[in-house]
Amino acid sequence: VELVFVDCSGRDVYLDLISRTWDNASMILAVVDVTEEDTYTRAKAIIELVKKKNADKKLPGVILANKTDLTGRRSVPPKVGSDLAASLGFLYFECTAREYKGIEEPFFYLANEWYKLHSETAESMANVA
Question: Scanning 55, 64, 83, 92, which has its CA 20 to 30 A from the CA of 126?
Answer without folding.
Answer: 55
